[in-house]
Amino acid sequence: MILITKGKSDMPIIEVRGLYKTFETKTNTVEALKDINFEVEAGDIYGIIGMSGAGKSTLVRCLNYLETPTRGTVTVEGQELGKLGDKELRDLRSSIGMIFQGFNLLMQKTCLDNICFPLLIHGTPKGEARQKAAQLLETVGLSDKAAAYPAQLSGGQRQRVAIARALACDPKILLCDEATSALDPQTTQSILQLLKKINQETGITIVIITHQMSVVREICRHVAIVENGEIVENGLVADIFTHPKSKAARRLIIEGKDPDEWEKENGAESATPGNARAADLTTPILHENRRIRIVFGTTSSFEPVIANMILTVGHPVNILKADTKDVGGTARGEMILGLPEDKDVQEKVISYLREHGLDVEEVD
After folding, report:
1. Mind giving me the DSSP string for 168-214?
2. Mind listing the pLDDT tens digit for each residue in 265-286?
3. Is 17:73 a contact under the CB 8 Å cutoff?
4. Would you say the C-alpha torsion 6, 9, 11, 12 has a positive or negative sign?
5. Coil, strand or helix: which one is 281?
6. CA atoms of 155 and 49, how far apart (whole Å)
7. Using CA atoms, how far apart are residues 351 and 294, in angstroms rounded to an integer?
8. What DSSP character marks residue 283?
9. Long-range CB pairs of 187-190, under 8 A, 24+ apart, other chains included
10. What are phi and psi of 10, to 5 degrees?
11. Which of 47, 114, 329, 349 sits in a 20 to 30 Å window from 99, CA-based?
12. What is the distance, to the nearest Å, from the Cα of residue 194 to the centroid of all Cα atoms in its chain?
């Protein structure tokens, strides 16, 4: 296995400031990106999520200047890309790997030759290139596929070859543009685990473009939510899960919809844990006029807090939603409760929950 140790620095490895991207057509002007500002720390796994047409793929292509921004700056490792000459830009791009939804492998070349290709372009001797390609195939778990052609591989195997090829020139940054959206859930999980392993072992910075919140929860430490060409919210995934502020974030977290489902009707209700389901079936229907969301984090106890709260306050509540999700390897639960109409009872419920260490927020 190849280990590529990346140094830590107080300076963000990627910094984007005031970024705009406008496309001119014969009939109109399309503003794909508007005043984008964010930064990515070295060694981070940073997610950018949004629905189709939100501008996220345009944004990731601006990070290595495959798309030139209309205005604003992109700074990578302290170098502002807009100020670099062609040769300097090509040299910097060699430290930025990229993988795509469609794999983009050379179908007439074997897996080994696909990985050798960027090495040979950069002048690596053929024998050295083949040796390194073989090591990378081992890293992605495909040592036995060196002589196979892409057409002989599954989708997940093709993406593993694409990842190995992207790592061939020892990049410091890996950009993943919808790298798992064409894969089934089980294969997606294996690719995400591979990316996480590579990040942990090499320190490579990974930026993931996706429309799947499950991908962000599984692997990302930070996330930016893009809507209509703008970043409407960004920060730690765990913080946004606990306290989503923007409408887009609340759709993702509270309604449980991926961006491409935002305009569709609500689907089937989420499955609820056994104790929540039992409470839901036995609790009488209330005419609630206030709803709250509570989040169970790593500091929550095993106390049956909802049952004890009902006993203490002396009034039932409606459990409208209950779910548990894996956020960055940590189980986090959430519930949406419908409260009785009595305002004094509402305040007692909220006070009880907060006194027992739960995050409580109002929801529509």
Report:
1. TT--SEEEEESTTTTS-HHHHHHHHHHHHHHHHHH--EEEEEES-HH
2. 444 333 333 333 333 333 344 4
3. yes
4. positive
5. helix
6. 22
7. 12
8. S
9. 187/154, 187/155, 187/156, 187/159, 188/212, 188/215, 189/218, 190/156
10. -70, -20
11. 329
12. 15
pLDDT in tens, 191-210: 888 899 999 988 999 999 98
Measured in whole angstroms, the distance separating CA 91 from the mean position of its chain's CA atoms is: 28
Distance CA 300, CA 333 (A): 10
Two tokens, residue 221: 């430490």
Helix/strand/coil for 63:
coil
User: What element of type H or E holds 318?
Assistant: strand 318-327
- Cβ atoms of residues 43 and 199 within 8 Å: yes
Q: Is the separation of the CB atoms in 185 and 108 below 8 Å?
A: no
Amino acid at 59: L
What's the predicted TM-score (pTM) here? 0.74
- Please provide residue 343's backbone torsions phi and psi, each rounded to the nearest 5 degrees: -65, -35
Distance CA 73, CA 68 (A): 10
- For 271, residues 6+ apart whose C-beta sits below 8 A from its C-beta are 323
The pLDDT confidence band at residue 172, using thresholds 50, 70 and 90, is: very high
Q: Which two tokens stand for residue 60?
A: 């990731």
Tokens of 285: 């229907």
Instruction: For residue 134, give the amino acid letter.
Output: A
Q: From CA 36, how far away is CA 156, in angstroms rounded?
A: 32
How many Cβ atoms are within 10 Å of 217's Cβ, its own excluded? 22
Amino acid at 62: C
